[in-house]
Amino acid sequence: MDASGLYWLSFKAVYQQLQAANRSTIDGLSEQLNLNFEWLLDGLSKFQKPNTSSRDTLNAGKSLRASSWGAKRGVAVDKHLVDATVELSQLLDLDELQCHLLLKRWLKDNDIHIQPPTVAATPATSVTSAAGGALLALPAPTTAATAGFTATAARPGQAVLSAEVVQGVLDYYAQERIYLAKCQQFLVMTAMNVHADASQTCCNVLRRLLDGGWESKTFDNLSALLAPQQAAAEASADAAAVQAAVVRDAALLVKPYNFEQRLHLHALHERCELLCILTQLYCGPDTTCSPSSYSIQQLIKDREQQQDMLSEAEADDTAAVASAVADVAGLSWPECSEERLIKLLQLLGEAVFLPGVPNGLSKPPRRTIPPAPNNTTDSQASAFEQLAQALAASLILAALKPAQLLNRLAESALAASAGGPLPRNTTAFKQWRSIEAALMQWRVVPGCVLPMLTVFAYNQLLASYRGSADAMSPSIQQNAIQAGGFAAIAAPLALEELSPNSLAGSL
Questions:
Q1: 401 pLDDT tier (thresholds 50, 70, 90)
Q2: Minimal CB count within 10 Å: which of 370, 373, 380, 455?
Q3: 28-37, 41-50, 122-131: which has the minimum mean pLDDT?
């Protein structure tokens, strides 16, 4: 079996290479981006679900090669970690072979060695560092673990993973997922920053991504994060069979007491990252909603006005920048379809602006999560919830494109005969009422104000031309005022994550 489709390089390293790109490293960066193209296109869905095929392959214990990644790359199976990997894959909801690769990478990066236990039961399984000396004391396969988790008898020769190892791998996996999303974001930013050395390289990759349906795949990934229960309900029977088999097997890892809390925190973070990516794609090079495009267009305009005063080198540079901007503008930037916009509003209303939930984002029942020793996790979750609300508002505005709506309204008004009615299709949305209704389901919090005021203001303008008011406008206005009105718009900007020099802040 070729494991090329499951293998990946560290996305933290790819992201660092993207950030540090200059003229001398362009060739290497181009090779990296092309090598990781399928991952950049498919995004988080490339981290696959547990399945019997990968589990059987892992149990076979044969090393697998990832031929398309290079002759020396692949997944070498450590047989004494097979059973623990299968259990860990269920906790992480990750393909067994990918989980084994992840576990081995974490152990290597942290210089930790888990030795195969002897057949006879011993007081503890030793975990050592390369420098020597015991690093972590792991319970033996036949002992009862702590934190409410009971370990039953394991197969001979199978190691047990401690809570520290499980938590470390969880955080390592979350980091890889986040850095994959960061790579996607930075790729768009670099392509649009025509002054960057890697702009043309990233623009070429971005063209392939957009032509390959990147917007649709990103939407699907975001939908899965916003509706985890629905995604779980649609899981295949194959995955259910794997879960049943694992339950019957011996417990070979110790689950950290705050595992669910950390898992939930990572999911909140991922939502924010994907909200950013989709907003970037819907903004595109539109100068009315893309700060970088606006500043570059202003630079070109200023230089064109001063053309007689420019040196030859400055004139050439201006022409080159204008050409690069035209290349970016000529990409197949996606438009948010009406059906997709309504679905987004519904998903965001159910997950980010859930009615009746104190902090906006739905959480697992408190009784299922052991109490934390401090409030750090709750504080971080609250910050991500507020950030998600602000980013959700930005995404809806990017999808609605208010500037285009206003231009269309102005053109329709000019085209209409004097005193005549405005065309009914002026909004460009056939289901405008459905859009309003979905927006009205959002919980009344500061984060919802901007989209609501935008829709209300547009309806008022539309009514002034048509001579008839929109039935939902008063309710939309009331909700916006109840959430704090214009004064509430500035509140989320106090978040550190929304500083002006951050991607989220600029969006």
A1: confident
A2: 373
A3: 122-131
- Express each pLDDT in 248-281 by its tens digit: 344 678 888 888 889 999 999 999 999 999 999 9
Q: Answer whether residue 245 shows pLDDT above 70.
A: no
DSSP code of residue 162:
-
Q: Which residues of 34-71 are buried (b: 16+ CB within 10 A; e: fewer)?
A: ebbeebbbbbbebbbbbbeebbebbeeeeebbbeebee
Residue whose entry in the numeric block shows the structure tokens 């079996």: 1
DSSP states along 6-29: T----HHHHHHHHHT--GGGHHHH
**Contact call for residues 151 and 255 (beta carbons, < 8 A):** no
How does DSSP classify residue 220? H
How many angstroms from the chain centroid is the CA of residue 185? 9
Q: Rg of the chain's alpha carbons, rounded to an integer? A: 26
Range 363-369, long-range pairs (CB < 8 A, 24+ positions) = 363/264, 364/260, 364/264, 368/260, 369/258, 369/260, 369/261, 369/264
Question: Which DSSP string do the residues of 318-356 spell out, in sequence order?
Answer: HHHHHHHHHHHHTS------HHHHHHHHHHHHHHTS-TT
Tracing tokens 């000529």 back to the chain, one arrives at 330
How far apart CA 462 and CA 255 sit, in angstroms, is: 57
State how far the Cα of 35 lies from the Cα of 39, in Å rounded to an integer: 9
pLDDT, tens digit, 9 for 90 and up, residues 341-395: 999 999 999 899 875 444 433 443 333 334 444 567 778 888 888 899 999 999 9
Higher pLDDT, 246 or 263: 263
Which amino acid type is present at position 105? R
Residue 238 in this model has a pLDDT that exceeds 70: no
Do the beta carbons of residue 35 and residue 66 sit within 8 Å? no
Cβ(1)–Cβ(57) below 8 Å = yes
Residue 212 contacts residue 21 (beta carbons within 8 Å): no
C-beta of residue 407 within 8 angstroms of C-beta of residue 414: no
Name every residue whose Cβ is closer than 8 Å to that of residue 506 and which is 6 or more positions away in sequence: 291, 292, 500
Dist CA 507 CA 502 (whole Å): 9
Q: How long a stretch of residues is the chain? A: 507
Q: Other CB atoms closer than 10 Å to residue 411's CB: what's the count?
A: 11
Tokens standing for residue 190: 């670099």
d(CA 179, CA 273): 9
Residue 411 has pLDDT above 80, yes or no: no
Find, among 136, 202, 123, 121, the residue nearest to 168 by Cα.
136
Would you give the DSSP letter of residue 127? E
Q: With CA atoms as reference, report the closest residue to 199 among 21, 319, 17.
A: 21
Residue type, 56: D
- Cα 231 to chain centroid, rounded: 16
